[in-house]
Prior knowledge:
The chain contains 7 helices and 8 strands.
Amino acid sequence: MSPVTMTHGARAVMIPADGVQLAGELAWPQHPGGMVLFAHGSGSGRLSPRNRFVAERLRDAGLATLLFDLLTEGEAGDRHNVFDIPLLARRLVAATTWAAQQADLAGLPVGYFGASTGAAAALTAAALSPLAAAAIVSRGGRPDLAGNALDRVTAPTLLLVGGRDPVVLDLNRAALARLRGPRELVIVPGAGHLFEERGAMEAVADAAAGWFVRYLELERVWRGAHLRNDPSVAAGPW
C-alpha cells in the first residue's frame, strides 16, 4: 500500500456527529502517508495555536491533519461537556468514520493527538473502536479520565509531559502501566502544563512527528502485506 496520491492543500469541513455539525479544517501534504486527528482539551478547538503548531510540523513530516471542534459553540459553553469524556470520544470516533469515507483519504492509517482532556477522549475512542487509531500521542494529557478504557488500549501510545507538571506526570506514570500496546513516557525538561517555555512545543511537535511517522508507516506496510492475502484485515497487530 503506497501513500495516497494528492496535491497539497487544505479545506474547511463540517463533520456530522450526534445530530450536530462539527467545524473542522483538513490539510494535507503531497502524498500523505497517514492522517492525524486532533482531540483538543479543556474546551479549546480547531483554532488552538499549540495544536496548529503541531499540525504544521506533522504535515512537514508527510501526514495529513484534521483539526476540528469536538463541541459546538453552544455545547462548549456548558462546562460539563468539556469533561464529558464518553461524549468527546464518540465525537472523535464519528470524525474518524467520516474521514475514512472521504475518497481522497480512504486507506490512510489514522493517529490521534490529544491534549489535556482530549487525551482521555483519544484513549477512550481507541478503546471503543480498536481499529480506529494506529498510534496515539498525548500532550500534557489526563489519561486518568479515560478510566477503565486504559486497560483496553493497544495502539502504540506516547505520553508527553512537562517536567514542571508533577501532578500530571504522576497521573501519566500510573496510566503508562495500564496501557497494553507499545508505550513510552517522555518528560520535556523545564516545561509546565501548557508547554509555553522556549523550545517546549518544538520538542512536543518533533516527538509527535517521530512517533506518528514510525507507527503509521508500520501500520501502512503491515496492511499492504496482509490485505493481499486477507481483505478483511483492517489494523496492525498492536
